[in-house]
Amino acid sequence: MTFWQFVDKRLDQVSWPRARTVAGAGIFSLTLIVLLMIREQPTLADNDLFKTLAQGIVLQGLLNLAMAFWFTAKERESHPQPVEVTNSPAHPVPVEQGDEK
Length: 101
Prior knowledge:
By secondary structure, the chain is an all-alpha fold. Helices cover 56% and strands 0% of the residues.
């Protein structure tokens, strides 16, 4: 067993977070950062440019969260099926007759 085969087997055993979890954590983090910036520098709350940028960051994060939920709605908990290669090493990819070079 090579090192990469060992790593591949170990990575298959790891339970990775779902895309929805990552998107939710991302929008929470962005909002938290904006609020912490206002807490550290209260004068930012009076700055119109900062207000606009903060609203843009939070709204873009919410839109991305909605899109992540939309595109990952069909995400399944199943693991991919193992692939069995039946072709010989001399001809790894099947080709139609006449397409051979």
